[in-house]
Amino acid sequence: MLTVAFAGTFAASLAPPVQAHLGIPCDIRVTDEARIVDKLGDVDVLVAMAFTREMAAGARRLKLVQVPGAGLERIDRAALPAGTALANAYGHEVGIAEYVLGAMLTLTRGFVRLDAALRRGAWESQWAVGATPPPPWPELAGKTLGILGYGRIGQALAQRARGFDMEICAIRRDVARSARDGLARLGGLDILDDVLRRSDYLAITLPATVATRGLLGTAQLALMKPTAVLVNVARAEIVDEQALYRALAERAIAAAALDVWYRYPTDATPTPPARQPFHELPNVLMTPHVSGWTEGMLAARARLIADNIRRISRGEPPENLIGD
Description:
Elements: E1 2-7, H1 9-22, E2 26-31, H2 33-36, E3 45-48, H3 53-57, E4 64-66, E5 85-87, H4 93-109, H5 111-119, E6 144-148, H6 152-162, E7 167-171, E8 185-187, H7 192-198, E9 201-204, H8 218-222, E10 229-232, H9 241-249, E11 255-258, E12 284-286, H10 295-313
Parallel strand pairs: 1-2, 1-3, 3-4, 4-5, 6-7, 6-9, 7-8, 9-10, 10-11, 11-12
Helix pairs in contact: 1-10, 4-6
């Protein structure tokens, strides 16, 4: 019988649905990342967002480190014991694509501001008596959506954006892996400046790597239209924090929806998500890294993790195996 450990808050939340899908007897253990270090001696499968050298020291029979998300930045791959497989999980692309489109509409049409005004009895519309009607809202139809990162999320977003009659330009590292999909442009980072200039909306769906951290700074943001809307659902550090704050505060770009942040909680006390005061800007939609937190994502990941545990029990390689 395999021993499977779920370490950390997110991994622990998946333990019950994974167990429901397993169909084979397993010894299931749930703990936090700090306590797992001394408990890995008899663990066969570790489900966790992090893997460190301290964890590796006691992992005598570990066969699989299963990351319950897509990101691998907290995994010390050099510390993986010989013979230990590493796999990650997706299933979040639909939820994130829907979030991006919702954020674009929310910012373009000022839903948050209009809601707050109407609750006060103020009609910021053509129905207001004795007031000049506001300018009509732009439509998504005919606008250009730039997608930085044309992987699972980017492709799911493009599919839905086409339903809004948007023109799509996309960037990905390995262009050969993508069909043109009717895109206006598809290329590598060499076309970044052109995509930034064209985009009415810019969605960041890239992984954080050496090549992408700090990818967008002052010079890159200056290429964007003053009417452009930026949506970051990838990793905060892809966009320079000070440069982004300044661009938004000075209205060099129109607005941003930020679901990923420069600081995260380490305890239960209130945690400002950035060093810059984004919360003071009316043209920023702030959400606490929830764009992929959907029923579909949780169900898909639970099924995948359960399937990978069964594969390990049969001596088979896991799905989404991460190579060297």
